[in-house]
Amino acid sequence: MAKQVLSFTVNGEPVEALVQPYMTLLDALREDLGLTGPKEGCGTGDCGACSVHLDGKLVASCLVLAHQARGRSVTTIEGLARGKTLTPVQDAFVRRGVAQCGFCIPGVLMSAAALLAENPKPSEEDIRYAIAGNLCRCTGYTKMIEAISEAAGAKG
Amino acid sequence: MHRFDLVTPGSIDDCLRALKGRGPDVKVLAGGTDLIAQLKVGMLKVATVVDLSGVADLRVLEGDAQRGFRIGAAVTARTLERDAKLRAALPSLSESGALVGSIQIRNLATLGGNICNAAPSADMAPPLVALDAEAVIAGAAGRRKVPMASFFKGVRQTVLAPDELLVEFVVPATGPRSGGAYLRHTPRRELDIAVVGVASQVSLKDGVCAKARIALAAVAPIPVRATAAERALEGQPLTPQAIARAADLALEAAKPISDQRGSAEYRRHLVRVLTRRTLTIALERATA
User: Fold this and answer.
1) How far apart are CA A142 and CA B248, in angstroms?
2) Which of B102, B105, B114, B189 would best serve as a mutation to test chain A binding (most A beta carbons within 10 A)?
3) Reported ipTM exceeds the 0.95 cut
């Protein structure tokens, strides 16, 4: 049960880490790589706070073993912006004051980014469907939907 | 998290070698949405986990309505939800994939995982049973096929031996005038577990029902076929009256328990309602 070398790409950079076989991707990102944007809420895949993109697909990183990401590409909230320039959806979240406690927001933004990458012009129903796996205990869903909708417009 | 060793085979044969001679202390990992959660909460303890993510052969997806389909055990719920050919040809299976978890779960969760976890409420089981699908199982002695109607042995128990691997599902051609549907009842639309699920599949010939399959989830220890209801439909025109009678007869296969998701009485009510609705949708699709 020794640590094993894990090579993968995180936010565009090749990364190597020594990781226990039973460690989750979420724990490796947070504890070994210092990327604390993805959060542990429930730890069992129900809340969406740990959402990241794995090879471009939205996943709950608390249910992925770190070693399952070997050779693959992971994007976290830290890798969404280009340098200091926020994406339109991040910018809309800031300007509209979407975050309340803020714990769910990195996960929500990863869901929104996955949606907009596939569907640049989502309907309100599409947006609700896309963030249905993200629980916000502050219940701040209305502003999230407005901000994602605005960002979709800005992109077009 | 419970501690374990991790094996990462690159092929089905590598995987079988890793499983050889092992018992229940080894588990294969596909999507992880059940297994990792169970290991985290201490529901399950194993010495070794065999990660299937490097085995590309388990993600095969090929076929069409005329030839039938091969669907790899590691095809994700999200692929079932979104693959255009699958949605058109096997709508019940596609619908069951779309109902599981959330998008971040469906991108991980696999068809084979949902089946091998063998929860009585597994959404993808009734469509496979109603489609007369077979499970292809690889072991040391070669491959065997098991009809999905006999795959489950009890709550979280299947015909799989610890050293065997579920490789793929073979779904036979449904025929030109066939339709299917899967519906479940849950209090919440997302991230919930079926109180009752029903899949129906009907094929028409010369104005009557040539073949009917109805499979029920979460009303018995394993997914069950409603054979009395199927027999009552075969050879008959699918009138609203015939469908209503089949919905009543479907209750004969249901042996529900009362638990936190619903009472046995409520589940019997849901069996009748969802059988009627899925048969009605299946008929519409067969005639479309």
Assistant:
1) 43
2) B102
3) yes
